[in-house]
Amino acid sequence: MGLLDKEFSEGNIVISNVEDLFNWARLSSIWQLGFGLACCAIEMMATSMSHYDFDRFGVIPRNTPRQADAIIISGTVTLKMATRIKRLYEQMPDPKYIISMGSCANCGGPYWEHGYHVLKGIDRIIPVDVYVPGCPPRPEALLEGLLKLQEKIRNESLRKKSA
Amino acid sequence: MKNPEEIFNLLKEKFGDSILGIDKDTPTEAIISINPGQIHRVSKFLRENEELKFDSLMCLSGVDDANGEKIKEEDGSEIIKGGTLSVYYHLHSVDLKHKITLKVSTPREDPKVESVENIWKSANWHEREAFDLVGIVFLNHPDLRRILMPYDWDEFTEEISRHPLRKDYKNPEFYQGMKVPY
Lengths: 163, 182
What we know:
The complex is a heterodimer. By secondary structure, chain A is of the alpha/beta class. Chain A has helices at residues 18-28, 39-48, 79-91, 102-107, 139-154, and strands at 6-7, 14-15, 32-33, 61-62, 70-74, 97-101, 130-132. A three-stranded parallel β-sheet of chain A has the order 5-6-7. By secondary structure, chain B is an alpha+beta fold. Helices cover 20% and strands 30% of the residues of chain B. In chain B, β10 and β11 (178-179) form a beta hairpin. Chain B is elongated. Classes of the chains: A alpha/beta, B alpha+beta.
């Protein structure tokens, strides 16, 4: 990763470049917006609990969009909720990331044809970084999604907005 | 405890022509049909009468009977003209341990039913739901707003897309700039 590889002999100075340092800091403390929608949210909560321990990746729920880095769309997005999610997303400061969790958020899931009230995919209103398939995805799948997001952040450049 | 026949006879005695009939050929409780303009009076009687004491409205549902004339549109879909929409009331007496179902039917083009909100408070949200999804207007309801669909649904949709559980409902193309169909 090139961050901590150049260490001076005393041990309290390291040399890195700004890009690596920023990316390392960002990917190591992804604070997610404390927000859940449907059955996927139950799996998301299970991921936060001690068995799977989201916190070991630096993910903690934050109850305000102003201080959140990522939003996990965990469940069915109704049209009524979609307008609220868009508002929440706009209230988050850059850089911000989105994990679309489960079939409903990805593409409408089981509601794709007759769900008169369901938005068929959250990517119709906000840009998604990582899609996690499943109905609902197991905590392992969500963790995998998070690792993918970390990978994406690790390769970001200051010159471009996202990798 | 009273059987449906006895309840029907009691109502018939009291309200006469407002009680339209009884259907006993049902898998659960018998269904008594009532004039939509009289449902409030009948409900009040059912609740307050010492022999009936229906103190609980277990469920209230709006139903599209789809019994009108079906007209084919150019794109193959159907719209329904005429016929009725119905409301079903599932009542239960906790005290006397008997149950009954009431039904009122109202014309599709002008669906109006009296509210029973001030008799059973549980009717409040149930009636809002029937109004929201089937489009039945409950007279004298204190707060008849949509409960599930967005409050501004009407502003973005055509007449045929107002109430999603009508049988001839058509999904709108867009709501607030978001595409609705898959």
